[in-house]
């Protein structure tokens, strides 16, 4: 029975087949071309592929997959899919660590991140403990951003009753559920006693801003924020900076 091996990577992979002769040595080499499907015998698959640490790791990160529809092939496909999901779970865990450390706002490692805050290939290599194919890394990046756009991977913990706890590198705060993020401003954001009219006007303008405008104001005021910061968190940070600046002027 033959096994179909698909190479999803951007480089060919080479599998040396050892000879059964007493002298040993290499009998021949199987080449898995990039973006191609290669047929190998079940014997080669069981003796040289799934026993190889290199090829097992390539299956784990999704670079290669076994495609057969028979029972052995189905098992291989399932195992390969599970390994791919394990590798993606490690990617998501790495993203959590990046975000908890400040993301692009952290100048210590911002050079190792893409403009969307995802890790560049060097950072992936350093944290995955092995090389990961750039094409597989790109698939993970696209999947992560798509899922994040649907509200997954948020640094929030939902509590019974609808309240939300902000987690990650941000200060932990509990917020009540709200349908309009721009109107979700808690009493903690109220101004200090007897603030100046100018400060009150500035804060009221900040409360009405959308997220894009808030980011522009935050950058102008040199307020650090994560790439995926929520409007409520950024609004509070900007208002806190306004208050701090006003206090300094009063002193």
Descriptive account of the structure:
Among the domains are: 2-71, no CATH class; 176-250, no CATH class. The protein is 45% helix and 14% strand. It is elongated, with a radius of gyration of 26 Å. A hairpin with a 7-residue loop joins strand 7 and strand 8 (174-175). It has a 3-stranded antiparallel sheet. The protein has a 3-stranded antiparallel sheet with strand order 6-7-8, with no helix packed on it. The termini are far apart. Helix 6 runs antiparallel to helix 8. By secondary structure, the chain is an alpha+beta fold. The model is unreliable at 169-175 and 179-192 (pLDDT under 50).
Distance from first to last alpha carbon: 83 Å
What spatial order of strands do you see in the largest sheet? Answer: 4-1-5
From the alpha-carbon coordinates, what is the Rg to the nearest angstrom? 26 Å
Contiguous helical run count: 8
Instruction: Please state the overall shape, judged from the principal axes of the Cα atoms.
Output: elongated
Fraction of residues in H or I helices: 40-55%
User: Could you state the order of secondary-structure elements as H and E?
Assistant: EEEEHHEHHHEEEHHH
Uncertain spans: 169-175, 179-192
β-strand percent reads: 5-15%
